[in-house]
Design brief:
By secondary structure, the chain is mainly beta. The chain has helices at residues 2-28, 130-137; strands spanning 35-45, 48-50, 59-67, 71-76, 79-83, 87-91, 96-107, 113-124, 141-146, 154-157, 185-189, 193-197, 203-207, 221-223, 226-231, 235-242, 249-252, 268-275, 279-285, 292-299. The strands form four sheets. The chain has an eight-stranded antiparallel barrel with strand order 9-11-12-16-17-18-19-20. It has a four-stranded antiparallel β-sheet with strand order 2-1-3-6, with no helix packed on it.
């Protein structure tokens, strides 16, 4: 009789444990890896689709879909882009026709994932004009800063804006002196490297909810939608010049940025709105696809 009671006790314990595990599984949901990943590559020239491998812009759009996928990660030229929409754009700048690997990681419930890699052949024929390269690097190395004494040196407008400071125009008042932006220097070297010197305060300026993407200690002072004096060390990336749709565009690899961190897919790209021998006006769309932000820089 004692043995029977003992066996029944074990059976009940196992049943309770199994039920508990089932409850935990129900809370977590089924762990299902995505399947049947499909990758579609579209070549873009002057804003329109082109035949493979393109007509020289170097720009492609990569779309992915998979069964049971909730988000996608794209890895192109060592750059990782996470998108729920399953679509990203990328511009290759190495001259000529070259073959590149494109990897898509599809995420399912519980963080499980599946991966697929394809190769794409892309043609890039754009060569930046000599005067643009000279302006940017002085044919060796050149340091730039935010032109805080210039009207509309920092502003925003709707996505697709065609003028600086469309919202809240600035008359040239240095109203962001406590932001951590004014002492930053942006150094472009003719070998394609870029250094962001974050100044004596070792701090940068950025958008609340986006600046945390760059890492760092996560400090700084919240001022509405801005984060002032976010501690961040000097860093180096690379720069490239392209002209999608005929618009000169300056891109920084990794998380490199200018003036005010606004997120967005990497590389961070800035359209050159206007330029002289010693100044340039840049426009970029933020990571929320909410505004276009403009920055005026002068050679330091």
């Amino acid at each position: 009789m004692k043995n029977i009671k003992y066996i029944i006790g074990i059976f009940l314990s196992i049943s309770m444990l199994f039920t508990s595990c089932q409850d935990d599984d129900n809370e977590l949901g089924d762990l299902i890896a995505p399947s049947n990943i499909e990758i579609i590559v579209t070549y873009i020239d002057d804003g329109a689709e082109s035949p493979a491998p393109g007509l020289g812009s170097g720009e492609i759009k990569v779309s992915a879909k998979a069964d049971k996928a909730t988000a996608y990660q794209f890895v192109i030229q060592g750059q990782t882009k996470l998108q729920k929409s399953g679509s990203v754009s990328h511009t290759f700048t190495t001259l000529g026709t070259n073959t590149y690997a494109v990897t898509v990681i599809a995420f399912g419930t519980g963080g499980v994932s599946s991966t697929k890699t394809i190769e794409v052949e892309v043609q890039a024929l754009y060569e930046p004009p000599a005067d643009l390269l000279t302006m940017l690097t002085s044919n060796s190395s050149r340091s730039w800063r935010i032109a805080y004494e210039t009207p509309n040196y920092f502003g925003l407008g709707p996505v697709g804006t065609t003028r600086l400071g469309e919202y809240f125009p600035n008359g040239g008042t240095p109203d962001k002196s406590t932001s951590g932006m004014y002492d930053d220097r942006y150094i472009f070297n003719s070998d394609g490297t870029f250094t962001h010197d974050t100044g004596d305060d070792g701090a940068v300026f950025g958008r609340n909810g986006l600046i945390n993407e760059i890492g760092g200690p996560g400090d700084g002072t919240a001022d509405g939608d801005d984060i002032l004096k976010y501690s961040y060390a000097d860093y180096s990336e690379s720069w490239t010049l392209t002209a999608p749709g005929g618009v000169e565009t300056l891109s920084l690899s990794g998380l490199g940025f200018i003036g005010y961190y606004i997120g967005g897919s990497t590389p961070h790209s800035y359209k050159i709105f206007a330029r002289t021998d010693n100044s340039m006006s840049l426009i970029a769309t933020d990571g929320n696809n909410q505004f276009d932000w403009n920055f005026i820089l002068i050679a330091d």
